[in-house]
């Protein structure tokens, strides 16, 4: 059996599909933010996962190129990934943290930058969230797992 990446098996449409999923991810984040369905930060995400993992619908792990070799961050990512896999939570690696910060506001009250390395998207408290953009992202994650790409990487365009 040949191990190919998702992009290699998707053929010519891979760039279009990746762009489509990136756009859907932006839509998910933009609609979840005003509903209070976003948890930002490695520590905050770990607390949220511990308290109510069934409410988490998506986990984003984000790095920039200079942080790829940060061993402590990679250990945190490994533990979060293992927990998410154990609890059937879809995971995406996101490049372009600057764009992620733009989408989510990027600053705590007082002007301090937020830790964008881990972002959780949760269901609103009152209902189960039915969003076509979220469905598209979840389908992409499922298709990637079928191809043994457990944590696919999405590049958010500028």
Task: Write a compact overview of the structure shown.
The protein is an alpha/beta fold and 158 residues long.
Poorly predicted regions are 1-12
What string gives the helices and strands in order? HHEHEHEHEHE
Q: Distance between the terminal alpha carbons, to the nearest Å?
A: 37 Å
Shape: globular
Family: Belongs to the GADD45 family.
Keywords: Cell cycle, DNA damage, Growth arrest, Nucleus, Phosphoprotein
GO cellular component, one term: cytoplasm
Pfam families: Ribosomal_L7Ae (PF01248)
Describe the model.
By secondary structure, this protein is an alpha/beta fold. The chain is 46% helix and 15% strand. It has helices spanning 6-10, 14-32, 42-51, 71-86, 97-104, 132-146, and strands at residues 38-40, 56-62, 91-95, 118-122, 153-155. The protein has a 5-stranded mixed beta sheet with strand order 1-4-2-3-5, sandwiched between helices. It has 6 helices and 5 strands, in the order H-H-E-H-E-H-E-H-E-H-E. Helix 4 links the parallel strand 2 (56-62) and strand 3 (91-95). Helix 2 (14-32) packs across helix 6 (132-146). It has one domain (17-155): Ribosomal protein L30/S12 (60s Ribosomal Protein L30, Chain: A). Mean pLDDT is 84; it is low at 1-12. Residues 24-105 form the Ribosomal protein eL8/eL30/eS12/Gadd45 domain.
């Amino acid at each position: 059996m040949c191990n190919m990446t998702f992009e290699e098996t998707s053929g010519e449409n891979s760039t279009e599909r990746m762009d489509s999923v990136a756009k859907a991810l932006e839509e998910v984040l933009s609609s979840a933010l005003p509903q209070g369905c976003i948890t930002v930060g490695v520590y905050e995400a770990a607390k949220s996962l511990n308290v109510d993992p069934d409410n988490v619908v998506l986990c984003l792990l984000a790095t920039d190129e200079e942080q790829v070799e940060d061993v402590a961050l990679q250990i945190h990512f490994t533990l979060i990934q293992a927990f998410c896999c154990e609890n059937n939570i879809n995971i995406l690696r996101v490049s372009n943290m600057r764009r992620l910060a733009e989408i989510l506001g990027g600053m705590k009250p007082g002007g301090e930058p937020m830790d964008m390395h881990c972002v959780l998207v949760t269901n609103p408290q009152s209902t189960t969230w039915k969003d076509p953009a979220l469905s598209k992202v979840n389908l992409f994650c499922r298709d990637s797992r079928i191809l043994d790409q457990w944590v696919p990487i999405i590049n958010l365009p500028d």
